[in-house]
Design brief:
The protein is mainly α. Helices cover 69% and strands 4% of the residues. A 3-stranded antiparallel β-sheet has the order 1-2-3, covered by helices on one side. A hairpin with a 2-residue loop joins strand 2 and strand 3. The protein is globular and about 55 Å long.
């Protein structure tokens, strides 16, 4: 019976792999707009395939690491993250008046996404309120001055979520959220590109091309590879707006399939985290689920034209290096939390009470 439990298929393990495999198919389709004329395999797809293999390998490695290891490593990770953000500010390559990427030879790396992961591992352990706010503010501030307003706001949201999960008094959480959002609002008013995005979004006569693409897909879609949005009129179709390509080519059915997989994953992962062997593992799991969920929600809402453009990728699916690897690290940790809980149940002869925390 114990062996049966050990070898059972875990949804938290299989769904990220399904989403990633599906993502490879969609990246191939979405990036074929230009290469179709040359009758060659898209270069971006070949790169994505290589990154996917690396990311999945790291996924399985991180799934073997017990949550206690992340707890011990968290202070080091947070300091590495801050150092990388500082290096990005001074030595990152400037693209469109922003420094968001570090380059090691021809390999690019986006420290802000790693910093969000580090922040979650650090705040999963209940810390002094002042220390927690300091690190949230520091990391969000370093991202904000790149400038990257979307990532900074998401970092604040994740930080607030971690405070809430650690049972910080609600008035403190609301106060921190209010102050940081005011600072973010002032920065948005100051930055021309952000103000322009919001103005365009609020224009009632402006209909997003991404929304049109999803609408064109209808119920069953135009067919895989048959979408026209990727042919130059949807920007970054294989990354920032890949959900629009899914909607156009696979229709409502394909979109619902993706959303359903994410929902099943979030529910399964949340259950695993709530049954975790200790409080740190539980908060870490819930924080990482929030991390993936926020990215997925923001990406889908942008594609549907509900919120202004942010450039946020769809976890496990969009083309990208840093985002894909970090998503699979987060997914691997969630698997390790599930495995750790299962091993404790076997050790206790099945007497472990789900939902109980042990310090």
């Amino acid at each position: 019976m114990a062996a049966h439990r050990e070898n059972k298929i875990r949804l938290v393990e299989i769904i990220p792999l399904l989403l990633g495999t599906f993502g490879l198919v969609m990246v191939f389709s979405a990036s074929s707009g230009i290469s179709v004329y040359k009758r060659t395999i898209p270069v971006s797809f070949i790169k994505q395939l290589a990154i996917f293999i690396v990311a999945v390998s790291i996924f399985f490695i991180s799934s073997k690491l017990k949550p206690k290891i992340w707890e011990k490593m968290s202070p080091v990770l947070i300091m590495i993250a801050i150092s990388l953000l500082i290096l990005t500010r001074f030595f990152g390559q400037e693209i469109n008046y922003a420094r968001r990427w570090l380059y090691i030879g021809k390999i690019s790396f986006q420290p802000s996404i790693f910093a969000q992961l580090a922040l979650i591992t650090f705040l999963a352990k209940k810390r002094d309120f002042g220390i927690s706010v300091l690190f949230i503010s520091l990391i969000a501030g370093l991202i904000l001055i790149q400038p990257d307003i979307s990532m900074a706001l998401m970092t604040v949201l994740l930080g607030i979520m971690m405070l809430f999960l650690n049972e910080t008094k609600i008035w403190k959480v609301v106060g921190v959220a209010g102050i940081m959002l005011l600072i973010g609002g002032a920065f948005i008013a100051k930055e021309g590109y952000a103000h322009q995005r919001i103005t365009t979004y609020l224009n009632p006569n402006s209909i997003s091309k991404t929304v049109q693409a999803i609408s064109n897909g209808g119920f069953s879609g135009l067919g895989l590879g048959s979408g026209m949005g990727k042919f130059f009129y949807i920007p970054f179709p294989d990354s920032d707006f890949i959900f629009s390509i899914i909607g156009e080519e696979l229709g409502f059915i394909g979109s619902l399939f993706v959303i359903s997989l994410f929902l099943i994953y979030f529910i399964s992962a949340s259950k695993s985290s709530l049954r975790a062997s200790n409080n740190y593992a539980s908060i870490l799991g819930l924080g990482l689920i929030s991390f993936i969920a926020i990215y997925a929600l923001v990406h889908i809402l942008v594609s549907l034209g509900v919120i202004p453009v942010t450039g946020v990728p769809l976890p496990f699916i969009s083309r990208g290096g840093t985002a894909l690897v970090i998503a699979y690290i987060a997914g691997g940790v969630i698997v390790s939390i599930e495995k750790d809980h299962s091993s404790i149940r076997r050790w206790n002869g099945g007497t472990y009470i789900p939902g109980s925390f042990h310090s």
